[in-house]
Amino acid sequence: xxxxxxxxxxxxxxxxxxxxxxxxxxxxxxxxxxxxxxxxxxxxxxxxxxxxxxxxxxxxxxxxxxxxxxxxxxxxxxxxxxxxxxxxxxxxxxxxxxxxxxxxxxxxxxxxxxxxxxxxxxxxxxxxxxxxxxxxxxxxxxxxxxxxxxxxxxxxxxxxxxxxxxxxxxxxxxxxxxxxxxxxxxxxxxxxxxxxxxxxxxxxxxxxxxxxxxxxxxxxxxxxxxxxxxxxxxxxxxxxxxxxxxx
Amino acid sequence: xxxxxxxxxxxxxxxxxxxxxxxxxxxxxxxxxxxxxxxxxxxxxxxxxxxxxxxxxxxxxxxxxxxxxxxxxxxxxxxxxxxxxxxxxxxxxxxxxxxxxxxxxxxxxxxxxxxxxxxxxxxxxxxxxxxxxxxxxxxxxxxxxxxxxxxxxxxxxxxxxxxxxxxxxxxxxxxxxxxxxx
Amino acid sequence: xxxxxxxxxxxxxxxxxxxxxxxxxxxxxxxxxxxxxxxxxxxxxxxxxxxxxxxxxxxxxxxxxxxxxxxxxxxxxxxxxxxxxxxxxxxxxxxxxxxxxxxxxxxxxxxxxxxxxxxxxxxxxxxxxxxxxxxxxxxxxxxxxxxxxxxxxxxxxxxxxxxxxxxxxxxxxxxxxxxxxxxxxxxxxxxxxxxxxxxxxxxxxxxxxxxxxxxxxxxxxxxxxxxxxxxxxxxxxxxxxxxxxxxxxxxxxxxxxxxxxxxxxxxxxxxxxxxxxxxxxxxxxxxxxxxxxxxxxxxxxxxxxxxxxxxxxxxxxxxxxxxxxxxxxxxxxxxxxxxxxxxxxxxxxxxxxxxxxxxxxxxxxxxxxxxxxxxxxxxxxxxxxxxxxxxxxxxxxxxxxxxxxxxxxxxxxxxxxxxxxxxxxxxxxxxxxxxxxxxxxxxxxxxxxxxxxxxxxxxxxxxxxxxx
Lengths: 247, 182, 468
Fold this sequence. Notes:
The complex is a heterotrimer of chains A (247), B (182) and C (468).
Chain A: H1 21-37, H2 41-84, E1 90-93, E2 98-100, H3 101-127, H4 130-140, H5 145-174, H6 184-212, H7 227-245
Antiparallel strand pairs in A: 1-2
Helix pairs in contact in A: 1-3, 1-7, 2-3, 4-5, 5-6
Chain B: H1 15-55, H2 62-70, H3 75-89, H4 97-114, H5 123-131, H6 134-145, H7 151-180
Helix pairs in contact in B: 1-3, 1-7, 2-3, 2-5, 2-7, 3-4, 4-5, 4-6, 5-7, 6-7
Chain C: E1 2-12, E2 15-25, E3 29-34, H1 41-48, H2 51-54, E4 59-66, H3 74-83, E5 84-87, H4 100-110, H5 115-128, H6 144-155, E6 162-166, H7 174-189, E7 194-198, E8 211-216, E9 219-223, H8 225-230, H9 233-246, E10 254-264, E11 268-273, E12 276-278, E13 282-286, H10 293-301, E14 308-313, E15 319-322, H11 335-346, H12 350-355, H13 360-363, H14 373-388, E16 391-395, H15 403-418, E17 422-427, H16 430-435, E18 439-444, E19 447-451, H17 453-464
């Protein structure tokens, strides 16, 4: 039954009711934009909590580590705030470290924002596999078939690319250079090698597609809403109303 | 048998162009993910301005690279948007916000080629289109991180980003010479 | 029915690749197109199908007809996919979608099926192909053989009336070649089908062919079938194999040894490998795609860790691995710089390296990625020599090389052998076994077994179904 996730085309998977890709995408997009506009922690906080929980419910194992990264990043945000925005009345005095109100405010605001953006993004990604998303965009949001091809092809290439990169690093070591190409020249040569190999494959893939009839390809379109979509739209509306009310 | 890199007539995209974009997208999506470590490592040593100069340009690099390789309108834009889309559909820290960067930076970089009426795809164009995305990048960073510094500091940061963009744009152009002539 | 009358064609107007071509493949026949690498066979196929003109921006001065369609005219060009099936040189490059299921549905949709229909048929097809338990796995989780089977099946999914094959045996192993021969044989039995094969190894298809042409720099010529049969490489191989076994010189001291080596990942692919390599010796490792040849070489080179056992390299010797795709090995912008840097790192004098490359003067300023296939291999082996001077591991070095280029490879390896280099070559090419290798090991059910060289060559041909 591993066939349900990771599919581009519907594959008899109706046992798991999921919302539509486009609905969740728009949900995430709207809230991401909202995150950028909000400044007050008290308005942000409930929304952040709601969405972070949503994302963890949708796929704990997939996304928990993102929040770990947020935690790490928040240290950087804190130091930034201390260095650049440490003004206003003192909030905490620990001798070597004096934290003032504005710094604290900035820290909290930025962290909450980042958490919200990560949260809705994580929710989106937890619900759908990359392939499902590509298919959803093509079918529901009318993303052009060619772009869909580029993205699917990218997914197809991913393991090959990882392998090529590993091989390049091994060959560098074999020839007595450092494994990671960190100078500009080394970066350029690694990039060239990867792209040349990739492009040669792509050229023949293209010939094959052309001769299989890619020019005649027309993806199907259509959206079908279900109860999950309604729930999501409701949740979005509720959050927006909340934001307006707490102005 | 080796075929030259140009495909299709003039300004229409062929299926091979889209596959090339797929290759660029996957290479940069992976490179972007790996580059964060480099960014933070360098930041610890060189501080905000030096780090930006040395490393930030990588995030603009797909634009001049795609444009120099494919040489059709919107190649640069797609070169930036597609890796960003990939980052948005995989679990990555930036999530969907990457799309904002991708589109904004892509448009800015694309302008670098549009200004020359899509007739030239040389080193100058690569440099310009590497520098321009610095503007939306700075704005988006500032908006998110409340990194709103006084005037002169912002200008310094912008300059750092632009210099980096130019550097990486030229590397991209250079790489495209190796790839294209084949 | 295929007719092609081409005065000139190429990728850019100033550089024609083929000229004076007149090839005709009557209905219900199998036609062979011979020619050296670089002679333009593939360019011809691309011109014939209109791809050169409409996709690759090339030019064609000539007239081409496939059945009643004119591929050089856009309306007809768009109708081609439903009529022709194109099997490429490396069928793996054909796969564009992440999973076999997606690839199949996508191909069906391109042929005009609705999504629902495509989904249904895809399941049936994949089940028939024996892939039903892998349809939603990423394509890279399929074995090499399964990938090729899938690509080939997808090329002919619509039962086309015209079948075109571009160097089908270039990258296929025994199973692959057998599959292609089966398909051609099936097609022969149906009426009305035209098959065109571009190949430089006619031996695999000689018995199935009705007529043949050869493409040379000056143009195309028909080839009499009798000459094809006469120069059957099977006999040649057998002869040469017997001859060379007599010249087997003695080899020097031990340079590489493996004892009790198990290689693989979570599960061992090959167990208990005990190899010995002496100075100047060439070992061949045979096995179907996916059996572990590359993993073995990479483990010996230090890329992977052995599961158990060990690899011992003789004193002062080193091991260098040359991949199947030499592009990933190059680090610098010009051939000259590659050699200079290699010389710097290995203290091997540049002049001696240059001596090993007779065509060096004309390409010294070129980017190594721009060299031809054979040249890139040559360069990678020279670099390997400078670094190792001991054991060079070659991964499938003869893929895609026609007989002329193959002989170049053979000469290079012989001259390096004389200088005391040993080789470990993984291959599925009987030419390599027959003419280059001293000792042969075969991978069989997870073990490495030494076998008689000449017997292997004979068996190879019989297993592909080629009549003696």
